[in-house]
Amino acid sequence: MVPIRILSDNDVKNILDIKNTVACVEKAYALKANNQVRLFPMVSEVIFEGRAEMDIKSGMLNEEDVFGLKLVSWFGDNKNQGLPAITGLTMLFDLKNGFPKAMINASYLTGMRTGAAGSIGVKHLSKQDSKTLMIVGTGVQAIFQIAATLSQVQTINKVYIYDPVKYENASKFQYSIKTELDKIINDINDTYNKSWKQRIESVQFVAVETPVKALEETDAVITITPSRKPLIFKEWIKPGIHFSCVGADMTGKQEIDEKIFEVASVYVDDITQASTVGETQSAIRAGILGKNNLTEIGQFILGNAKGRTSDEEITIFDSTGIALQDLAVSKYIVSKAEEMNVGTIVQI
Amino acid sequence: MVPIRILSDNDVKNILDIKNTVACVEKAYALKANNQVRLFPMVSEVIFEGRAEMDIKSGMLNEEDVFGLKLVSWFGDNKNQGLPAITGLTMLFDLKNGFPKAMINASYLTGMRTGAAGSIGVKHLSKQDSKTLMIVGTGVQAIFQIAATLSQVQTINKVYIYDPVKYENASKFQYSIKTELDKIINDINDTYNKSWKQRIESVQFVAVETPVKALEETDAVITITPSRKPLIFKEWIKPGIHFSCVGADMTGKQEIDEKIFEVASVYVDDITQASTVGETQSAIRAGILGKNNLTEIGQFILGNAKGRTSDEEITIFDSTGIALQDLAVSKYIVSKAEEMNVGTIVQI
Questions:
Q1: pLDDT digit string, tens, across residues B250-302
Q2: Identity of the residue in B43, B105, B348 whose CB atom sits nearest the CB atom of A348
Q3: Do B347 and A8 touch (CB under 8 A)?
Q4: How far apart, in whole angstroms, are the C-alpha atoms of residue B155 and residue B207?
Q5: What kind of architecture, by CATH, is found in domain B125-321?
Q6: Which of B2, B10, B97 to mutate to test the interface with A (most CBs of A within 10 A)?
Q7: For B292, which DSSP code?
């Protein structure tokens, strides 16, 4: 019998802030580039065609002395019963003896680490004075992308919201956005989150029916949809734009025109995953680029890759979501939970 | 927040008996042969070369309305600190909505379902009047193989114990065997387990230094070691013998001479796993047989395969261990736990 710490979604919400999540995800990318981590093969399965999917991402973080996995599922029909479509669990094990350490509800955790990923692309690869962000998609993950990007990129003062399914989703989302952003803690040390409230108030949020006109003044786009066809076309974009493509995580998914890859510098979280299940897969399949045209973002964070070199360069960050993000954030959550005495300890 | 039932190893010990475990495993094999289940790709990783391994097995059982996974690790150095080398967890999720249902300590569960698998091979494929069993290997899993086989094959009255590393392991094991068998519940309905005690007393246990002479009167062999080279050679065996090969579950593992496959009928739990990570891999690699020479044991259970046809036939059952065994047994454990009000419910 060993003790295992169980952390609910509420526990995670009480522990996790944007700044620490971003720090963990950047660290995971850097450790990966330094080969101090291992990513195990992903299990990605359709459970019921068009209605339910599941994936298991696993790996190990040597420096943090943990290995583990995250199982996340999507059950589309849940919405009809008012239940969340996406649920999941993270399991953390001790790299010294294999014993289980913690089980963590992965819902909020996934939103936060995915938001961190999208924002890291914008922070490191968009133009230095980027002012306008466009978010494509208004599902549960969208708010985390906006929150993390506003936290990390202080120059942004306008956010266009585009929903490819219907405009009403975008306009509805627009009116709830400040309240929702306020629920996500930016910085755990900013006790009353005062500067975060000011930051939110400093931004204009604008729902748009079509992206074409808004793209003329957009500096960075984050795509976060389950799309299987391009939503943004090469003819619509101007030089200097950045894309963080976050939605594609399975074979057949695609959010932007593969022709944009012809004129872009491409960064990814993991070359294998990006070229097989990420946004990059469609450009690879079309023969527009090969794996050797891809740079892992961890190489940039470590200073081994140069990143953007001019205000005209078009950049893409393809974030497929890797287990190391989950493990690094989970390890942080567990350390804080021990410190704060949060969660339920069960002997197993 | 959803409720999840946490079941410790002690909880599992209080719930699980041999007869129900065997029934669950046979049902899992049959459902697999009937395509009412899905096995997802296995993740099998060496963590530290020669010192630690980990695997994640996952799948879904449509009829039981569950999907899930088992993560099991082996950390060899744990023994030096008096800790168990093998630990693991099973996670069960609801196939209706993806919500987590239960987390179960997988130690005892794994022993029981692995013992059930080995015994199912002996029960269905050894000669009808099999009297003598040989167990090769005296690690933690050995007792479960013996227990399940004595439960399922009533004609066996002698068990040879052979340890390929050193004889002392076998002779030590021999003296603890009746006490250890007594700790494993055979039939939950046999309240005081009276007939089980009688059954154990009816058997002779004999440690042997080498297997050669004992094999002359052995009807069925179960191999349960981490070996990477053959331990039983073709020259040593007689017609009519059965092998349940249970130890091999990774690339490079092997317990019996691949030449035995030249003269044997071969049954497996899963053709893909058996031919890549099971005992069968070495015979496949040597060109002795192909995948089309393999029959899944579920086909026999369903009555679609004929099984043994004479007392001279040599049979092999290659059990690599599939997620469906774990899921079927886990589902049974959870149903019993609900009925008996066992375990800890945590809101996650």
A1: 889 999 999 999 999 999 999 999 999 999 999 999 999 999 999 999 999 99
A2: B105
A3: yes
A4: 20
A5: 3-Layer(aba) Sandwich (3.40)
A6: B97
A7: G
Cα within 13 Å of Cα(A9), Cβ side: 16
- Helices B142-152 and B194-201 sit at what angle, rounded to 10 degrees? 100
Q: Residues 6 or more apart from B334 whose CB is under 8 A from it?
A: B5, B7, B92, B101, B102, B104
**Which token pair is A116?**
């961190």
Distance, in Å, from the CA atom of A329 to the CA atom of A293, rounded to the nearest integer, reads: 29
The confidence band for B118, taking pLDDT boundaries of 50, 70 and 90, is very high
Inter-chain touch B52–A98, beta carbons under 8 Å: yes
The domain ranges of chain B are 3-109+324-347, 125-321
**Separation in Å, CA A269 to CA A164, B119, B330:** 25, 47, 36
Distance CA A35, CA A60 (A): 11
Q: pLDDT tens for residues A76-132?
A: 899 899 999 889 999 999 999 999 999 999 999 999 999 999 999 999 999 999 999
Contact B6 A95 (CB under 8 A): no
Closest CB to B67 among A40, A47, A344:
A47
Which residues of B are identified as catalytic?
70
Residue with tokens 């021999």: B174
- Cα A304 from Cα A314, distance rounded (Å): 20
Q: Would the CB atoms of B71 and A69 count as touching at under 8 Å?
A: yes
The angle at the Cα of A112, spanning A106 to A118, to the nearest 5 degrees, equals: 130
What value of ipTM does the predicted structure carry? 0.89
Closest-CA distance, A196 to chain B, in angstroms, reads 27
| Closest Cβ–Cβ partner in A10, A38, A56 for B56 | A56
- Express each pLDDT in B24-79 by its tens digit: 999 999 999 998 899 999 999 999 998 999 999 999 999 899 999 999 999 989 98
Residue A175, classified by CB atoms within 10 Å of its CB into exposed (0-12), middle (13-18) or buried (19+), is: exposed
Q: What is the mean pLDDT of chain B?
A: 96
The answer to whether domain B3-109+324-347 has CATH 3.40.350.10 is no
State how far the Cα of A301 lies from the Cα of A303, in Å rounded to an integer.
Answer: 5
Copy the structure tokens of residue A275. Answer: 């070229």
- Pick B36 or B132 by higher pLDDT: B132
Size of interface A-B (CB pairs under 8 A): 118
Rounded to whole angstroms, what are the CA distances from B139 to A235, B21, B136?
66, 20, 10
Where residue A176 falls among pLDDT bands split at 50, 70, 90? very high
Nearest CA of chain B to the CA of A292: how many Å?
26
Res. B141: pLDDT tops 90: yes
pLDDT band at A197 (very low <50, low <70, confident <90, very high): very high
The label of the residue with tokens 């585009």 reads: A162
Selected for mutation to probe chain A from B57, B71, B105, B330 (highest A CB count within 10 Å) is: B71
